[in-house]
Amino acid sequence: MLLAPEITPNAYTTPLRRLLGPGPSDISTRVLQALAKPTIGYLDPSFVGMMEELKALLRYAFQTKNALTFPVSGPGSAGMEMCFVNMVDRGDKVIVCRNGVFGNRMVENVERCGGQAIIVDDVWGQAVDLNKVEEAFKQYPDAKVLAFVHAETSTGALSDARALCALAQRYGALTIVDAVTSLGGVPVLADEWGADAIYSGSQKCLSCTPGLSPITFSDRVVAKVQARPQKSQSWFLDLNLLLGYWGETTRTYHHTAPTNSLYALHEALLALQQEGLEQAWARHKSNHEALKAGLAVLDIRYVVEETSRLPQLNSIYIPQGLDDKLVRTAMLQEHGIEIGAGLGALAGKIWRIGLMGYSSRVENVVACLAALESVLI
Ligand code: PLP
């Protein structure tokens, strides 16, 4: 007898939700339709043409002329890891800013690469303190890399990426910037900032399916990686090997590209370009303002100071006396709305309401406020 699973033999159907958490965000019909196009070979001339457009659209999203700009076949965590395994050698000092969960993951990455993490801690919910980072550079002027999270999804805080990149340049260090939650929601200006490596995620303000990590590297990084005497400890994430597939001239097999997900990302980026980056940033801001006004009426307080608050991720204190899980469950079961719980030290204390990408729409703000009001009263 063969083993057989005990499931009802119907196709899986998903419930209809409004995704107003920390990601994934809602996906538009046009992007879902792109996903359903016939799969073709990843070396098919038609697919290769689409890849070139995809790279150009990503350069627009990142505002960069960097030749090496492409989507990593893996989630944001793969993009993060690709930066560290290629840019950190054994014994390298790396200044890592930690003001939430994802800064801590960067520390983990440095240590797993055999580097020495110089940690600059800030209170969760606050932006990275430039003075502290400058102090770290003064103490460790031989630091090779500065790594920080532009938009800390665990807290809703936005840090000053332009100033942090300028600081790293003054001390001759490369930068690794986490823009998983920022890309498409607030300005990410790779060339203007002089950033060296920026990675993002497909599932937040780009509103594509999860599982891809747009990434861009400066020519300085490419030169460093190409001159590296030892091989990267990761085969899959080795930039030198990936250059053969995503590079300028060659298209040789490295791994089987997730073709349909790439169609979807192409469509999502096309939608972003058609809307215009500045319009997309303005939309995120105005929907945030509308939500903020409604939350004030409900007497709900924000975690992050107004000056460093992310418009696409509203982290708010849970009003006293309310049960975190009960409220989130009621929002989901009764109203079909997903909002996010707090992470780490903020678990049970905050909720995270995302208005990211295609989720950042007035109708979602209205639905969320109405549901919150009915659940809280
Ligand atoms: N960095 C930040 C700031 C994130 O918000 C996330 C995911 O939420 C990640 C990295 C990891 O991305 P993924 O979950 O796609 O691996």
Give a verbal description of the structure.
There is one protein chain. This protein is of the alpha/beta class and 377 residues long. It is 41% helix and 15% strand. The chain is built from 13 helices and 14 strands. It has helices at 29-35, 45-62, 76-87, 101-112, 130-139, 161-170, 190-193, 219-226, 239-246, 259-275, 277-297, 324-335, 362-376; strands at 18-19, 68-72, 93-98, 116-121, 145-149, 151-152, 157-158, 174-178, 197-199, 213-217, 313-317, 337-338, 340-341, 350-354. The termini are far apart. The mean pLDDT is 96. The structure holds pyridoxal-5'-phosphate. Pyridoxal-5'-phosphate is lined by residues 22-23, 75-77, 80, 102, 149, 153, 178, 180-181, 201.
The backbone outline, from C-alpha atoms, is globular
SSE-based structural type? alpha/beta
Taking pLDDT < 50 over at least 5 consecutive residues as the criterion, the unreliable ranges are none
Distance between the termini: 56 Å
| Helix percent band | 40-55%
Radius of gyration: 21 Å
Mean pLDDT across the residues is 96
Number of helices: 13
- SSE order: EHHEHEHEHEEEHEHEEHHHHEHEEEH
Number of separate strands: 14
Tell me the strand order in the biggest sheet.
Answer: 2-10-9-8-5-3-4
Spell out which ligands are present.
Answer: pyridoxal-5'-phosphate
Report on the biggest sheet: 7 strands, mixed
**Strand content of the residues, in percent?**
5-15%
